[in-house]
């Protein structure tokens, strides 16, 4: 009984081992390479697979997904003999698990070495400036070479990216100084342009202000000149009317020697008003002086000693109260009268003769009696 149970146990264990060797489950996006007696037999697809136990063996389980491998920085010499460190990232995918297993021993190491050699060939034909600014060109060159070389390994290189390019510390310092100088230069240029624009705008503003001030001064001068012209015209008209009135009054009053003596007496204080007149002697015999004055004036041609006829009084015009009332009554028509006066003055300035009456003919000088 005990022996039978032992045999059944051994048989069960053998069955379990047999099933484990026969049934193979392959995960999704994986591929199993099966060998029979060390020779490639078939490739297992994802899912449940059956193999011959103790004869077939799943040697490799290949990952069919796209993989990303980052390589450490590699020293590369540029065309101008500067050493830069470049680290890359490779995106690849296994397309043929059999070729990836039997065509190359370690495809990741092979891709790394191929990337390093290709990168040195590409960067060796560029200077530092081109290396730092031509990442896309380097990426395209690496992708083309790697894709062509890895096709027979059953690998497809999707993309190659440059993670970083690190120049030497001395070159970094020089580049920073150059960048700082360029920024300072741009700052100075922008400041100069700002000052230039400010100066231009200020000059334009001053120009406009000067033009406006000149126009305003011109209009003000024109208005002042017109006002002075009108004032001068009115003043000249007033003086002319006053002279005409005085002249007419003198002729109407028929002046004689007494009037001239009176005018002489009125002029005596004005004669003494000069600063140089320190001493002025009044004649003691004023009567004789007046007689002498009368006799002297008697000899003036054209002025009689005594005049006859009716004496006419000069009309002095209305009083101040009447003038104020007349001004208030005629305030509405004052502007029109002024314009008429200005027009008349303009006509007179252009050559019109005045309407003053001619002076009376002077009488011939009296003949002196013979001595």
UniProtKB/TrEMBL annotation:
It comes from the Bacteria. The keyword Transmembrane applies. It is a single-pass membrane protein. Residues 323-371 are annotated as: Disordered. GO terms for biological process: proteolysis. Its main location: membrane. Residues 356-371 have a biased composition (Pro residues). InterPro entries: Band7/mec-2_domain, Band_7, Band_7/SPFH_dom_sf, Band_7/stomatin-like_CS, Stomatin_HflK_fam. One of its GO terms (molecular function) is peptidase activity. Keywords: Hydrolase, Membrane, Protease, Transmembrane, Transmembrane helix. Gene3D superfamilies: Band 7 domain. It is found in: Membrane. Residues 21-179 form the Band domain. Belongs to the band 7/mec-2 family. This is Regulator of protease activity HflC (Stomatin/prohibitin superfamily). It comes from Nocardioides marmoribigeumensis. The lineage of its organism: Bacteria, Bacillati, Actinomycetota, Actinomycetes, Propionibacteriales.
